[in-house]
Every structure is written in C-alpha cells, then in structure tokens.
Amino acid sequence: MTTTTALRPVTVAELQRAYRDVLDGRFRRHPTRTPRTDETWHGPALPVLAACSASGASTIALALATVTGGSRLVDCAGPASALAGAATAELGQDDDGWVRGRRGEVLLERPAAPVATAHPPTTPQGYEGELAVIDVAAPVETVIVGRSWVADLLRRPGPVVVTTTSTVPGFRRLDRTLDLLRHREVVVATGSPSRRHRDRAAAHAWEQVCAAHDLRGRVVTVPLDPRLRVHGIDSAPLPAALLRTARHALTLTTLNRKVSS
C-alpha cells in the first residue's frame, strides 16, 4: 500500500529565501566558498557601468586604471571577461577565488569561477587604501537591488563612469541608467561622433537625455580604435587617444588622486 503525504503549501517568504540562496550560489553542486553577504568595499573606488552592451565599459575601465598609475582594476565578469587577456604577468589565484595579474603598475583581479549572479559574492582582499576601478560588468538595475559589496558601492554617493553607444537604444538605456544613479556623480563616456555626423534619430534621443539630465561638463567622447574593435583587449598598450580620454574623464570627477602623465 502506498502512503501519500500531503504537501504543505510553500509561503512567499520561503520562496523569496530560496531565490536569494540560488542567487548567492548556495545550491551549487561543488561550492568553492560560502558567500559572505555582509562585506563592504573600503577605500576609494570608481565604478564603471555599461548602459548597454558593446559600449566599451571594460576598455574604459582598463584605461582609467592605467592613467591613475599604481591602482587596481577589479573585474566582476569572471573568466569570460573581455579583460581576461589584459595582464602581462599572471600572479595566480588567492584563497578567496580571485585571479590576480599585473599590467604595468595596475593590479588586475577577476573571479576565477563563473559568476552565478550579477556580481561576485566576496570582496577581493587587501590593498584597501588604493584607488580601485570597478568594472561592474552587469546592468545597474540588476546589481543595485541585490545584496553584495558591489550593490552597496553603487548605492553610495560618489563618482561613477557610464558608457553608452551612439544609437537610439543606447541613449534610451543611458536615460534609464542615469535615473537609477541620480544620487551619483556621473561621467558619461560615449563613442558618439560629432553632432553633424550623427543619425537624426540618435541625435534626437541624445537631446532628450541631455534635457532630462544635466550632463554639461560631464561627457567624454571615446575614440574608436580599429585594432581594439577587431582584436579586443590583450597585453598590447592601449591607444594614446584612449588614454587621453580616460585622463579627461578622471578630471571630471572629484577623486583626489594624482593622475600619472
């Protein structure tokens, strides 16, 4: 005889807890580390966000870290990151699951394992006094509502760089991103050409963004580089024009750090 046990209805609170546990990676088959959700970022940081995909956020993040000199670049994307080949010297993996490398004076850090959520669950250790450029590598609306050091960092006031493409969808996404970051000091990095060469619809979308958000003195134009478009980021030096743009972007923030020449 088969005995059937009645199932207790699952409450909304239980479903919410289970969903958070899945996001935190607690149900992975081979967890490498129990996530700590009470960590916070200490020290100066400059987050870099992409308002839309393929807008060059990782490239700008690397350029910003390069022109500061002696800083660190924390890449939140994981092994498949666009910055995976940026290091000129690999330093190995630490006990918290971060792979470290060097590129000149810049310390590069990225999660060794695929990131199951929109952000790494733990902060990289040490070097708390140095400026860190944070390549957030996820949409702001996904990250800012979560529980992590990245979400906590984005909810604070302070400077942030947002990249976008010179397209109607790109400017629409930028408008949404700026709405979520009204408490931040935002610098917009766009690959847009000059106004007379921009598509009329894109130009109108850009004007709408400027009308909704005061971007005066907070926009830099990122030069397009044919080699980077084909090869992506590798160990080769970044173009001088890109570094000049990154240096200009830094001057538009209130970060009190000497920019190397």
State the gist of this model:
With 261 residues, the chain is of the alpha/beta class. The protein contains eight helices and nine strands. The protein has a nine-stranded mixed beta sheet, sandwiched between helices.
Please describe what this structure looks like:
Helix content is 30%, strand content 18%. Helix 2 (57-68) packs across helix 8 (240-251) and helix 5 (168-180) runs parallel beside helix 6. A nine-stranded mixed sheet has the order 3-4-5-2-6-1-7-8-9, with helices on both faces. It has helices at 12-23, 57-68, 140-143, 149-155, 168-180, 200-212, 226-231, 240-251; strands at residues 45-50, 72-75, 89-93, 98-103, 106-111, 132-135, 159-164, 185-190, 219-221. The chain is α/β, with parallel strands linked by helices and 261 residues long.
